[in-house]
Amino acid sequence: SLSFHSADSGASPPYSTATGGEGSEWGAAGPSSSGSSLGALPERRRPRGRRPRQQVVKELEAQEIRWFYLEERKVWKAFIGYDSLRLEQAFRAAGPRGAAEDSPGAAVEPVCVRGGLYEVNVVNAESYPVYWNQTEKIPVMRGQWFIDGTWQPLEEEESNLIEQEHLNHFRGQQLRESFDMEVSQPADGREVIHSLKLSCKHVDWHSVDEVYLYSDAATSKIARTVKRKLGFSKASSSGTRLHRGYVEEATLEDKPPETSHIVFVVHGIGQKMDQGRIIKNTALMRDNARKIEDKCFPNLATRVEFLPVEWRSKLTLDKDTVDSITPDTVRGLRAMLNSSAMDIMYYTSPFYRDELVGSLQQELNRLYTLFCSRNPEFEKKGGKVSIVSHSLGCVIAYDVMTGWNPVRFYEQLLQREEEEDEPEDRRMSYEERCLLEELHIAKQRSREIEERLHELRASAISNPPVLKFKVENFFCMGSPLAVFLALRGIQPGNSGSQDHILPRTTCNRLLNIFHPSDPVAYRLEPLILKHYSNIPPVQIHWYDPANLLPYDDVGLNFGNPTNEPTSLNDSESGSAVPSPTTSPVMARRRYGESITNIGRASMLGAASIGMGLRRMLFSRFGQSSTTTLQPLETGNDGAKEDDGEETTTVGTPPSSDSTSGFPRPTAELEHRIDFELREGLVGSRYLSAVTSHTAYWSSMDIALFLLKFLYKDDQEDADESNLVTG
InterPro entries attached here (predicted)? Predict the structure, then answer.
């Protein structure tokens, strides 16, 4: 028989990844058919929409019953086959629901469902999340009878009554040899062989497998009477066709792949104002990722799981002191600012900062420990962990990973200044030198006493937070991290290594995602190499095109500097001549640049191509290598010849010292860090500035972007295996 594990963090894995074969929980023959078990799995599998032939009426098998859950009070959603079978097993093992609820010592093991994210109590018919708190429980229902067309289940109480009545009157009777469930045949002219009266409805049986449900409301009766006078039958006028058993049989193979990568999703400011928002945003991101997986990664044997990290709601911080000093005027606006922007002030305060950092660090470690306890094979099989952070959450997550502490940073600065501050010996009297020597000895003694005091009071300055896992990818969305790092004194260097701002030993890959109109987001690449301020960020692909260029293969595009005009009036097309076989060098589009300027910049690129083709023709058809060509000048009327003295020798590569004033540097980043969402061609940038900071969660482009990096190793392994098998 099936055994179900405890939901506690120390329990064995409640969500098995077996496929139902010889090594699975149910063995090769399926679950036992005795007593409260599921019954033997039949060899045949019911095709979609068609019942098997030569079947008699008997109790529904576990494969024909389907369990559902109701999320956000919308429509009932069916559990996958693997979950439904496990729920049915637990339901039958618990006995009748009323008896199980009345027995005082009955402890029913919860069943893990939906990839291990939720658990179900079959006795209370409720589902609840495992990794986060949720006030509202999710109702679940056992479906036996279903509405034709939508395949929504009838309410469980009505379904149980209809099922009991059906078995009492038709048990053992033969069903029709062939019955197409997709094509509903009307029961016109057929007599009713049995009826069942419910509270406000009644059910008519026209045959063993032709069952209709009718409403007994006054309006429904009047409508039925009018339609029957017009020649319509009772069944076709107001009856709802019912089906016994779900359209698809539940199978053990219908289950999600094994989780090989978990992604912790960290929120930014505003969680106190809208508690639970990070749970909804994570669910939105997870749903988008599932759609992208089905479309772009259908053959992978593993999956990525997204877990929300809610670090703000448990903190009290000032114990409502700020609310007490808030004036009553424009109270709504002030309350919104206190619940959102106040988090930034809390984080810059040395009194509250450690609480915020410690809360996030503890929550990350708690979630990781809980996940590994429920999935013990995760670490053994080399499971990876990534973090997706938004807004201020990027800064806090960065400090958690690196252990940055402002108090310790200030002490290091003071110590450095004291070491550099050497007294000048000249023009000092003997008495001054003696006093300075005594002062030096006193400072040294004071420093020793302070060190001993710090050892005794180690809690005075918190130790650097330590995570129980290494971060594979750190995705920042709408992040102000670059500003915080700049204010901490980080300056661009000469090396293109990510270690300049985030060591690879702590995080393997740092990626900064932002919308061009997001006023909170800043670039990170110029903090490593300054000249990257003149190199546009990598454009994030749209999620629908095929054969996309991998992001690691995207080359550098050296655009114009920020202060260089990109209009045709102010720029010379001859300043940077591309090869005739390559695309033109496009000017860097500034964030305030209009679509008109973009079109004019494309005309500038076309003129550059024309000049490149002309150079190639002259060099190949009889022109001397010493022949000079006059560069073209683009003015208001198009491309014109320049009468100036400046000449360029044919065949000589353009100088790295272009007229833009920015030579092409030799130092490059080991990999790109800044990635920019594409802007729509229609819409106001000022309106986008208001909405763009919260638009990352619903973006399908970002979902594809994340999966491209999260599945990078798995995709490469799959491609290699395909080459070997091919």
Answer: DDHD_dom (IPR004177), PA-PLA1 (IPR058055)
Amino acid identity, position 617? L
Cα–Cα distance, 726 to 709 (Å, whole number): 25
Strands of 210-215's sheet, edge to edge? 145-147, 240-244, 210-215, 201-207, 194-197
Shared domain check, 351 and 240? no
Q: Which two tokens stand for residue 175?
A: 């069903």
Q: How far is CA 505 from CA 39, 92, 643, in A?
A: 53, 51, 58
The kind and range of the H/E element at 76 are strand 76-78
Distance (Å, rounded) from C-alpha 565 to C-alpha 659? 13
Q: Are residues 383 and 264 in the same domain?
A: yes
Query: Please, are residues 67 and 84 in contact by the beta-carbon 8 Å criterion?
Result: yes
Give catalytic status of residue 571 as yes or no.
Answer: no
**CATH for 383:** 3.40.50.1820
Per-residue pLDDT tens over the stretch 679-722? 876 567 778 888 899 999 999 999 999 999 999 887 766 665 55
pLDDT digits (tens, 9 = 90+) for 250-285: 999 999 999 999 999 999 988 777 778 999 999 999
Judgement on whether residues 238 and 319 belong to the same structural domain of the protein = no
Residues 247/146, Cβ–Cβ less than 8 Å: yes
Task: Supply the range of the domain harboring residue 397.
Answer: 258-410+466-549+671-718
Q: Do 245 and 367 meet the contact criterion of CB atoms below 8 Å apart? A: no
Asked if residue 196 and residue 157 are part of one domain, the reply reads yes
pLDDT attached to residue 170:
92
Identify the active-site residue in 391, 479, 571, 608.
391
Q: Are residues 471 and 544 in the same domain?
A: yes
* Same domain as 395, residue 512: yes
Q: Whole-angstrom Cα distance, residue 273 to residue 337? A: 9
- In this structure, are 225 and 312 located in the same domain? no
- Find all residues with CB under 8 Å of 364, minimum gap 6, and list them: 264, 309, 387, 400, 467
Q: Say what the alpha-carbon torsion angle 573, 578, 584, 586 is, to the nearest 10 degrees.
A: -60
Amino acid at 647: T
pTM: 0.74
Same domain flag for 374 and 336: yes
Distance CA 566, CA 572 (A): 9
